Every structure is written in C-alpha cells, then in structure tokens.
Amino acid sequence: MASHPKAAALMHVIVGNMGNHNALVASQKTLAKTMGCTVRTVQRAIEVLRDGQWLEVRQVGAAGTTNAYVVNDRVAWSGPRDGIRYSLFSASVLITDEEQPDRAELADQEPLRGIPALYPGERQLPTGPGMPPPSQPSIDGLEPDLPVRQQDPRQSDLEDFTRRPGR
User: Fold this and answer.
1) Paired strand residues for 78
2) What percentage of the chain carries pLDDT values higher than 70?
C-alpha cells in the first residue's frame, strides 16, 4: 500500500464506514468527496484494491457509479430463480446530500414511523380489549406476526434513539 497511498486511504474510508458489515455501498462521487480527491483518483484506487484482492466491487444499478465494495469475503451468488442469479448481503450505505434530488427539503422532513424492536426470544402480542373466548380471528393491524426488526441486546434503546436523524 505504500506504493499506492490513495488506495490505502480509500481502504481506510471503506473499512471505517462499513461498520459490522463486510461491505459499503457508496457512489464514487461520495468517496471522492470523503477523501478530498477526484472521482478519477477514486477509480484508480478501486482498480489497485480490486487487482490486489483487497476488495470485490459489485455494481448497484445500471449506471456503474454506485457500487458495493465488499471486504473480507466474496459475495455468495444463489442459483437462478425465475432465470435471475442473485446475491443478498448486508452493507452499510454512505451517501451525501449533494446527490439527493430533494436536498433542499432534507432538514424539514417529518420523521418516519418506527418499526417495533424485539429482543431475541421475545414475541409480539396483540393488544386491545379483543373479543371473548373461546377463539377469535386476529384483529386487522394487530396480528401477532407483524414485521419487526430484531434488537441487538447489547444496544440500548437510548443508543437506538440517539442514532435517529434529527435527534
């Protein structure tokens, strides 16, 4: 890496932003802005890292300027489903407001509704007065298997709250 300092800098940006995942999704323009260099410099650094087997680059969308940069493991591809080979993996996403078509309104957006979080082993139960026994169908909107995200028991609710935008 001493012979390619910009490639080393790019690797630091990718690893520093990928969190607990082995991948970072970002545009070349965002990476260039983060590194304080040109898009062409980022492209050359990506070539050096890919050729040196430091990362795998997977294109996101048709344009080819936003990619998933995968570190440590190759992307696993599944067999064809309806004629399409696909891969599903987790990644952190790095974006800038400059690339957003609604960037002027970003500070004034209403917060999104939150999906409830469950700790491992917990089950979501419907609430409300319900109907008398012996049996009843689920109440619309209060089904016991509503989609939820699994909360990491090591992450406190306060940490989750403070990571929300605008807080």
Assistant:
1) 86
2) 72
